């Protein structure tokens, strides 16, 4: 009877020791904080985001996912910083094992924004407008957050020849729909003028002049295009 009790106690102690060793080896006595860090408006990855919990940090350049390990259970403050974004700070309660914390970063500004350049192209949906940003050196800006812009403009029929023309009748005026194109490099911000908003004489009115104003948190920026195709291209 005594031997049986001794054996049982020994087995329990060995089992407990194995469990403690397993937890130690797998790091389950600590917590892992993981999730995604993305632009709040576009959902794109936030480049050069630095995510910090009690001095432990990770830097991600292209991926939206992050992971911080060996975080002691308890109350902590998670802080995220990235160029051209507002800082993100959130109190978190970490438990043993995995802790999911998704982060939505809000854009602050486009760095050294001095102006815009627009390009137009007829697409199936309508006239697509590329909006490119340039800095004080005249160079294109490629790394920037999504911001709450609005776009408005006026579209005129272009009258005359290619080398000698003027604005004709106005065929559109007012707000223009904006959308974000994550696949683009220079022109992530785009506008679209649906074909059903344009009423033209398809035989005579082939080209237009477009004047745009982009309203941004950093001010209003204008540009125009004088060779807007008012027709779908046949491929």
TrEMBL record:
SUPFAM superfamilies linked to this entry: Carboxypeptidase regulatory domain-like
Keyword Transmembrane helix on entry: yes
Parts of the chain that traverse the membrane: 6-25
GO MF annotation terms: carboxypeptidase activity
Any matching Pfam family: CarboxypepD_reg
Assigned keywords, A-Z: Carboxypeptidase, Hydrolase, Membrane, Protease, Transmembrane, Transmembrane helix
Keyword 4Fe-4S in record: no
Alphabetical list of PROSITE patterns matching this protein: PROKAR_LIPOPROTEIN (PS51257)
Official protein name in the record: Carboxypeptidase regulatory-like domain-containing protein
Organism: Aerophobetes bacterium
Organism lineage: Bacteria, Candidatus Aerophobota
């Amino acid at each position: 009877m005594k031997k049986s009790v001794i054996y049982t106690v020994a087995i329990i102690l060995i089992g407990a020791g194995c469990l403690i060793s397993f937890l130690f080896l797998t790091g389950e006595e600590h917590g892992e904080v993981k999730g995604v860090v993305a632009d709040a408006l576009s959902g794109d990855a936030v480049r050069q985001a630095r995510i910090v919990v009690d001095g432990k940090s990770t830097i991600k350049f292209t991926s939206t996912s992050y992971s911080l390990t060996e975080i002691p259970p308890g109350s902590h403050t998670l802080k995220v910083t990235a160029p051209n974004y507002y800082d993100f700070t959130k109190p978190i309660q970490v438990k043993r094992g995995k802790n999911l914390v998704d982060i939505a970063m809000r854009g602050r500004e486009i760095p050294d924004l001095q102006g815009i350049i627009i390009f137009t192209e007829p697409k199936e949906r309508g006239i697509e407008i590329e909006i490119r940003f340039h800095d004080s050196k005249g160079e294109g800006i490629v790394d920037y957050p999504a911001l709450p812009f609005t776009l408005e403009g006026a579209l005129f029929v272009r009258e005359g020849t290619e080398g000698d023309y003027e604005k004709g009748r106005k065929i559109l005026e007012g707000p223009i729909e904006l959308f974000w194109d994550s696949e683009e490099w220079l022109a992530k911000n785009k506008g679209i003028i649906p074909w059903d908003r344009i009423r033209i004489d398809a035989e005579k009115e082939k080209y237009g002049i477009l004047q745009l104003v982009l309203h941004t948190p950093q001010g209003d920026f204008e540009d125009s295009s004088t060779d807007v195709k008012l027709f779908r291209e046949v491929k």
